[in-house]
Amino acid sequence: METVLMLKNCILTMLMITCGFAARADNHTTNATKAEDIETSPIEHVVDLEAAEKIFRKSCRACHGNKAQGAASYPKLSDKTPEYIAEKLKIYRSGEKIGPNSILMISHAKKLSDEDIVNISAYVATAFD
Predict the structure, then answer these.
(1) pTM of structure
(2) Helices 2-27 and 114-126 meet at what angle, rounded to 10?
C-alpha cells in the first residue's frame, strides 16, 4: 500500500510539473527562441497526500462518502480529475453558488488554501481507484 501511495505521489508530482510547464508555455509569445523564454521554473508544489487525507476525513467524507463515492444529493468525486475538483473548490471558495449544496461547500472551501486545494484535488482523484 505504501509503495502504491509513493508511486501515485510521484506521478502526481510529475503531472503537476508538466502542467506547470505547459501553462508557462501558453503564456509566452510565439517567439520562443529568446533567451528569457528558455528558462526553467521551479517546482511550485509537491502534493501532500497525508494532509489531504486529513482534510477529506474532516470535511468531505461525511457528505461525499468514505471513498468519495457520493451519497444522496452529494456527488461522486472519485471519478473526477484533479483539475475539475480544484476548479470547483476555487469557485466555492470565492463564494459563488453553483449548485444546491453551495452553502455547505462554500463554508468548507473558504477555509482552504491554494495548497490545500491542490492536495485534496489530487487525493480525491487518486486515492480511491
Answers:
(1) 0.67
(2) 130
